[in-house]
Amino acid sequence: MRFIHTADIHLDSPLTGLSAYDDAPVQQLRTATRDAFDGLVTEAIRAEVDFMVIAGDLYDGNWKDFNTGIFFVRQMGRLRQAGVPVYLLFGNHDAESEMTRRLVLPDNVHCFSANRTSTFELPELQVALHGRSFKHAATTENLAVFYPPGRPGWLNIGVLHTALGGHAAHANYAPCTAAELQALGYQYWALGHVHEHRVERVGGTVLAFPGNLQGRHAREPGPRGALLVTAAGSEIQSIERLHTDVLRWDLVNVDVGGASSITSVVRAVGDALERHLHSLDDPLPRALRVQLTGQTRLHGELFGAAARLRAEVVAQAASIAPERLWIEKLRIETTPLTSAATLADRADAIAELQAALLGAPDDAGLLQALEDELMQVLAKVPRSVADAVPQLDLVRNGQVAALVRAVTPTLLDHVAGTQGAGERP
Amino acid sequence: MRIARLDLLRYGKFTDRSVELPAGELDIHILVGANEAGKSTTRHAITDLLYGIETQTRYGYLHGMPEMRLAARIEQAAQALEFLRRKGNKQTLRTLAGAVLPDAELSPYLGASDRPFFERMFGLDHARLVKGGAELLSASDDLGQMLFRSAAGLSGLGDTARRLEDEADTLWGPRKKGDRAYYAAAEAMEAAEAELKASTVKAKDWAQAQADLDQAAEAHDAARALHAQIRAAKRVKERVRRSRPGLDALQGIERAEAALGAVTLLPTDARDLLAQAQATDALCGVEIAQHQGSLASIAAELAGLALDRAITEAAAEVADLDARRLRSAGFPADIQLAEGMVAADWTRVRSLAQQLGWRAESEDDVRAQLPPLMRRARLQALVSSHATVQLKLEHATESRRAKAREVEGLQAQIAAVPLATLPLELTVTLAQVQRLGDTQATARSLQQSVDRAQQAEVRACRATRLGTREFADEAALRAVALPSDEAARQHLADDQADAASERATANAIGELVEQIGLLELEISQFEASHRTVDQEAVLAARGERDSLFRALLDHPASLANQAPAYQGRVDDADQLADLRHDTAREASALQERRHRLEALQLRLQRATDRLRSVQQARADRARSWSAMAAAAGVPELPAEDLGHWRALRAAALETMAASVEARHAVQAHRQACGDLARALAQALGDAPGPVAASELDLLHERAQLLQQGAQQAQVRHRSLASQLEAAQHALGPLDEALASASAAASAWQAEWGQALRDAGIDAATSVGEVMATLSTVESIDAGLGSMLATRKDRIAGPTAELETLARLARSLAGRLGPELVGSEPAEIALALMDRLNEARRAAAERARLEARQRQVEQQLGEAIGRRDRALAALQPLLSTARVADLQALAPAIERSDEQRRLGAERLRAEQALLSTGDGLTLAELRAEAGSVDPATLMSDLDELGQQEGELVDTLSRLAVQRERAQQALDLIGGSAAAAIAESRRQEALSRMTDAVERYVTLATSARLLRWAIERFRETQQGPMLAGASRCFEQLTGGSFERLVVDFEHEPPTLEGRRADGSLVGVAGMSDGTRDQLFLALRLAALDMHLEAGHALPFIADDLFVNFDDDRSRAGFAALGALSRKTQVIYLTHHRHLAQLAQQALGPAVRVVDL
């Protein structure tokens, strides 16, 4: 007997943090969550699974477009034609969604009630599925206490949307402990809510988070997908990961400490991209965050050439594999070659400039002027933009001095770097 | 640091070139080299020497990259280092012997500098000077920028800030601009939001769309059913109306067939066959008559043609004769011309022979007198070698004469040079003084060493300062009794152990607190989810039950009233007892959790106690160390700094010792100078008396002059003697060459006489006359040759050709035309050729007529055959129609065709009826037509048509409604348009975020930079401007007396003040003055740097190339002042600048030729 366990599909929620540009594989990735779900349904039909479990967050909470629901209904229709029943539990996002209440689902889709814990029994397989959907998004009570004891001799599957004792990246909804879940005597807990894949065995009980179906931003790197569970009688025999994502998020670190020019930096990035591409064992496109690191004399120059550098890196990606590489961000995280102490020892004008700048965080007039200027930005830009810019957090919290301190080393190196060869005798 | 010697071993154009740069009173060195002498190479070599040869160097062109080598001796205070620098990626620093030196070996000499810093701070060239001056102008309104630019070669700070501001401005600004990245992205976001709004379908929209579609479909289906009924009725009426004319026509055809009666049917093409046979018969008759006429005409022409067979058979010979005629037509004229040329040649030959006095009656006479060719050749060779022999003889004679004159001259010069010798004492003492070197420079160097040692001593002592206590002398430093290293190590080890224990305990407490919290939560959740009953509750319930029972026993009368209450107590107690039994496991689990909680709380208490104990121990240990350090005299010294301070003290004591040693060296040098001065005065023969050490240089100069005079005379004498010996030695070979030339001349003369005799020429004939005679003989020989060739080639051949032509013509005329025998050969050939052409034309005409005759005969036969076949083809028709001739056949064909036409018409009428009869048979159609009243048919049809038209409109309208409803619903068919729009919106947001993030960094950086420039102005303008003022006055030769700042201007500006008090802004200064202002600011900044920073050699590259002589001298004076603080190397390709430097700074300036 085999079934698919999936969760956190967030249908039609967008990929975030990506800026479109000419050579980016934009078109094929704007419907990534749909494509991933479509792939999962295809896989379910191909593998002839006995049923599918969706453990919450099918939709994105604030997403209003009913087309998403229609799309879901169509996919369920495909499973219906293949004779695959679906057991659907609503999570915190679904509880907010109007589609959850109004959409008429095909008769092969069985929804867990939000008012009480319900159990679906499949006598021919001797499987019992227990679950309770979220009634409200902010469900902070422990739902596990309402789950009934397992049916002896059957395969008992608990379906639950929970943070399971807390997770740094997710709200602590429906908190419970592994011990509590184990105590109910189920063989498998099909969990949702945590976007990272995690499977653990506590005694004879499997607690499984499949992770979300498609990574949607740089903080969700690596492969994503669902779980294909095989059981014999009431015993779980194997749990296999199904990678259904259509785009993955990777971080490419490039140490440019040895680079002698912007051109060689670009070349190093190109080499790294090529190496990264060759190291992949799947054909999926990648959204790459390229991070330049290392101690380099180009630190200040890189700061000044950020726009050009991004354009060149994008061109490199386009020249290597335009259909597979999408540069999400280029982060310049290099450090200056010359330390502040060495700079001070030289006692030249740069040292003087450094000495002056070290006093900047204590200059109330400067800080006030800077704060006034940056507060204008805060007042103008949308909240989502302001939240995504860490420096504006400092401004909002009155920590302009910290911003000044953060900028100073790069600025110094930039000023020293602008004294090019033309200045030399 | 200074460079004492620079070795350009294999670098650029240099190979093993060494430049000595010894220290002196002024440490300034002028390196002079013409263009291409390697000035720029030397400048780069110094930088490469100190910081490594650049990877992409352009100075490896001669020796190759791997072989590039530089070496030097560098000095700093009392230290010196000799090292070699090779090209490479690692281990480029070596000893002179090639052993690897660590890069750190140079660190004490280079300080914290790196290549860019050295080039920027310690280098200046003319181009940079001019650029700096120009930049002062562009920054003249911003004093801060100006000072910063000048301070150390940093330029473009304002430009950098402006670039940052410009880039920031392209990203974001309070006001919307189309080209700002943020607003471009914001527009894209707004567009995506609009698209999202348009694409988003809400749930109620979908429900409404579904209902609309159902309603439209229902209405459409009803209208369509009614439409079908009306159409059926209308179809019947239409069919009757349509079939009625067809039925009438069919009836008419049937009547016509009956009237025609029985008819023999002939083939359908019978009429065409008859017409075709009649036409063919007529056409062939005309054609046969024409062909017969043509054959008669051709036979008459053939009979009139005649043939000339004799001329045709001899056609080849006649054509050959005519070809010969054409070829030899010009021969008679050519022969006459050639005979004229032979006559002219003979006339010229005879005249030349007569000039030589020869007999010239005939060609044979002249030919017999020509000298043989060998003799003429021998004379010619002797004439050619005559000039060479003569020239060699003259040259040898003149060389011998010149060398003899040189020997005499040298002997005279040697006799004129006097020789002198120096006293031995003077030579010995002078050598001792020279070994001592530049005594004054050595004294200055030693004194500088003393100064530096004392400064180092002061710095080292300052470094040992502890809190408020200073150690200014050796005794105070040595007096400090430090705690032992062992005690410090033990103190630190104990403290670190306790600190680790403290951290571990604190961590354990944190974990315990967390575990306790979690357990308390678990207990409270357990209590909430499981109701448990303990023993006390059961006992209490039983107690209540028993007390009521006892009361009933005491008051039996109340039994009736209290019985239900008692039963309730009994039930409660039993229920609790049962429940306790049922929840015993949960209660046990709860109790177990509570026990664990108590255990954790106990562990927490113990850990807290342990933490306090460790903290107390650390505080006690700190107090103990303080007490021990106070007792040793260094209460502020932490234990971890003890080792460091001990090293500082050792270093300070060492610098004190070095300072004493440097002072001793100065004293020893003074003593040595005094001793040598006295010895030198005595050797020079001065009067005995006291001699001061300071006179040593003067005495040394006198002795050197004496020594130089003697040495120069000796060198001159040796040189002349050497030249004389060489000249005398050269006389021998010159004599031999002269003898050889004379012998060659004599041999030529003897051979010449013999050759003249052999040729029969007078022995007194000159070489020139012989050359003329030989030329005339050659002309006669050529003329005779030409006559022979003309006779052979141009007269004899053509004459023979003409004779052959005549013979052949006469022969052919005899055979073919006897009447032509007496004619000229050319006329015979022409006449025979005409006859041949005529015979050929007659033969061609005959052949053409015979071919035409055959063709016409064939056409005649074909025409007769066609006529017979056409008539035979009608024979079957005649027999079918049973008629005898063609006239009777035509009516039979007419009846047959009419019968066939009526049959086909009837078939068409029936098919038309059936095809429009909607599948009904003819009988059914006739019956249906009979059932409808023709009088009302059209009105019924009109009414039905009207009803149908109205229904069609209705159906069309309803179909549109249904389609629209379907489309509306289809739009909600799971389209991804909204998702794609949201994706675009997120992409735009991402671009907006990127723009804002970059903007914040850029705007902050730009504002910081502006602020820093202003700060620099405020803090540095005082000391730097004071120094620059002095230097500027010096550089401008007093034209400006100082620099001032105009604070009333905002931002403040820099101005130069003239002696008369007038002020000149930077913009008002000339280009040259601005250059000097920039130089003054740079030198002042460098001066300030040297006060506190590490000294390195200052490399000036042709700075004064555009200065006049006065300002150049002033510039050198300023560099001279700088050279008292650090080494100055001035590179130039203007030699006069070296002289100006010496004029400005005296002989202390060292000039080196590259």
Which homologous superfamily in CATH is the superfamily of the largest domain in chain A? Metallo-dependent phosphatases
Q: Tally the helices of chain B.
A: 33
Query: In whole angstroms, how far apart are the ends of chain B?
Result: 23 Å
Main β-sheet, spatial strand arrangement of chain B: 2-1-4-5-6
What gross morphology of chain B would you assign? flat
Q: What count of domains describes the coordinates of chain A?
A: 3
Q: Determine the fraction of residues in helical runs of chain A and give it as a percent range.
A: 25-40%
Strand count of chain A: 17
Strand order of the largest sheet of chain A: 4-3-2-1-11-12
* Low-confidence runs of at least 5 consecutive residues of chain A: 420-425
Structural write-up:
The complex is a heterodimer of chains A (425) and B (1154). Helix content of chain A is 36%, strand content 22%. Chain A is an alpha/beta fold and 425 residues long. Chain A has three domains: 2-243, Metallo-dependent phosphatases (Purple Acid Phosphatase, chain A, domain 2, 4-Layer Sandwich), CATH 3.60.21.10; 248-335, no CATH class; 340-425, no CATH class. In chain A, strands 4-3-2-1-11-12 form a six-stranded mixed sheet, covered by helices on one side. In chain A, strands 5-6-7-8-10-9 form a six-stranded mixed sheet. Chain A has a three-stranded parallel sheet with strand order 13-14-16. In chain A, helix 10 runs antiparallel to helix 14. The longest helix of chain A has 18 residues, at 262-279. Chain A is elongated, with a radius of gyration of 27 Å. The model of chain A is unreliable at 420-425 (pLDDT under 50). Chain B contains 33 helices and 13 strands. In chain B, the strands form three sheets. Chain B has a five-stranded antiparallel sheet, with helices on one face. A five-stranded parallel sheet of chain B has the order 7-11-12-3-13, with helices on both faces. In chain B, strands 8-9-10 form a three-stranded antiparallel sheet, covered by helices on one side. By secondary structure, chain B is α/β, with parallel strands linked by helices. Classes of the chains: A alpha/beta (425), B alpha/beta (1154). The interface between A and B is large, with 85 and 90 residues.
